[in-house]
Amino acid sequence: MLSPVEINGLRSKHYNATLIELFMPQKALWIFRVKPDEGMIPFKPGQYTTLGLGLWEPCVAGSGPETLKPGQEKQLLRRAYSVSHPVVDSKTGALYSPTEIDFYEFYVTLVVNESSTPMPPRLTPRIFALKKGERLAFGPKMTGHYNLEGIKKTDQVVFFATGTGEAPHNAMIWQLLTQKHEGPIVSVVCVRYNADQAYRGLHEKLAKEYKNYHPIYLATREPGQPKQYAQDLIQQGLFEKKTGVLLEASKTHVYLCGNPSMIGRPEIKNGQKIYPKPAGLIEILENKGFTVSAPSRPGNIHFEAYW
């Protein structure tokens, strides 16, 4: 076990940011804001960076057993997280301007070990043990190609997310609204329970102010509510009924972030696409004339697998 002096030395060496705000929609779901010591670094909405904590840090109670190898307690554990966005200043009710935020917002769910068998160390149990004002490691740069490059002001932009996959979409929606996007914007978020819809109130307020913005929240396990997935909206014709937006490939870009079964990325075998079953959104959209975007061939389906 490390001494307090050793722990303080490791924190001073590795940590370069402070947890300045913390919101807990439920005990296993956090929205938190991190302020780097060196100030803000440029990023494109949709990108990600890394957060880290030392393996010497405690885990939140109930996170399950883990195994540390000898000497591992001095190591820093890092993971990549997409940058979310508060979108609106709660004090003024107006969209944040691009220059007035001095923090990064993250949307994270707690990953616990529900078995009695020890697992390798995990980061989220340590993040969920943090308190406002405490320190952590912040990545030195933003990265990723999941962004709004190439979008025209009149394009239809549709986001599909599961759970905390909503995070990068919050930042991208903020970018579209601040740039006075003219085409329809739709955000579909699918979670298990209504309690997991941490940003719902924000987006419903935005929809009242911006007539071209249409948020849809789905819950698959909420008692008394129909069990619907993102795929159902398209396959059952509900997407157009709820939004008035037609999914026309010629003028629509679709962004997918979250559960791989929702995304439905196909495997390529012998030059043929093998789609997972049940069908994910990529197969459904390709049948409607959409194409997956790639560096060598721009398309109108963009995706970011969250695990």
Outline the structure in words.
With 307 residues, this protein is α/β, with parallel strands linked by helices. The protein has 2 domains: 4-138, Translation factors (Elongation Factor Tu (Ef-tu), domain 3, Beta Barrel); 156-305, Rossmann fold (3-Layer(aba) Sandwich), CATH 3.40.50. It is 19% helix and 26% strand. The chain has helices at 4-14, 124-127, 167-178, 200-209, 230-235, 238-243, 260-263, 281-286, and strands at 17-26, 29-36, 48-54, 76-82, 104-109, 135-138, 156-162, 185-191, 213-219, 252-258, 267-269, 272-274, 301-305. It has a 6-stranded antiparallel beta sheet with strand order 4-3-6-1-2-5. Strands 9-8-7-10-13 form a 5-stranded parallel beta sheet. Strands 11-12 form a two-stranded antiparallel sheet. Strand 1 (17-26) and strand 2 (29-36) form a beta hairpin. The mean pLDDT is 95.
What's the quick description here?
The protein has 307 residues and is an alpha/beta fold. It has two domains: 135 residues, Translation factors (Elongation Factor Tu (Ef-tu), domain 3); 150 residues, Rossmann fold, CATH 3.40.50. The protein is built from eight helices and 13 strands.
Instruction: State the CATH class of the largest domain.
Output: Alpha Beta
- How many beta strands in the DSSP annotation? 13
Within CATH, the superfamily of the largest domain carries the name Nucleotide-binding domain of ferredoxin-NADP reductase (FNR) module
Low-confidence stretches: none
Number of domains: 2
Q: What portion of residues belong to β-strands?
A: 25-35%
